[in-house]
């Protein structure tokens, strides 16, 4: 389970380790801000609604297509996808392909 992918400098390392577990039925569960959520966070930091340090903890942001491309490299596919919190965040459930 990964819920910190948007905070990692090199998510490939973690995905490599997880995909190496062939004996288990592995599922990845990820939550990340949506592209809309990124805009909300950026504006919120500028106007003082959110702490700058909160925004600084993110390394990169992903849209659904970018997540799909990344996980496909490690033999995972998206099995469920939902947006929540007023389209600010996205939940992605992935399974081995």
Structural description of this entry:
The chain has 97 residues and is α+β, with helices and mostly antiparallel strands. The protein has one domain (5-96): Rossmann fold. Helices cover 36% and strands 25% of the residues. The protein has helices at residues 11-19, 35-46, 52-56, 64-72; strands spanning 27-33, 76-84, 89-96. Strands 1-3-2 form a 3-stranded antiparallel β-sheet. Strand 2 and strand 3 form a beta hairpin. The relative contact order is 0.24.
Summarize the structure.
The protein is of the alpha+beta class and 97 residues long. Helices cover 36% and strands 25% of the residues.
Highlighted features:
97 residues, alpha+beta, Rossmann fold, 3-stranded antiparallel β-sheet, 4 helices, 3 strands, elongated
Strand order in the sheet with the most strands: 1-3-2
- Number of self-contained structural domains: 1
- In the CATH hierarchy, the third-tier topology is known as Rossmann fold
Helical fraction equals: 25-40%
Strand count, sense and barrel status of the largest sheet are: 3 strands, antiparallel
Number of strands: 3
* Uncertain spans: none
Count of helical stretches: 4
What is the CATH class name?
Alpha Beta
Level-2 CATH architecture: 3-Layer(aba) Sandwich
| Rounded radius of gyration (Å) | 14 Å
Distance between the termini: 16 Å
Give the overall form: elongated
Instruction: Give the SSE order as H and E letters.
Output: HEHHHEE
Oligomer type: single chain
Instruction: Find the CATH superfamily.
Output: Vaccinia Virus protein VP39
Beta fraction: 15-25%
Average pLDDT, all residues: 85
| Class derived from helix and strand content | alpha+beta
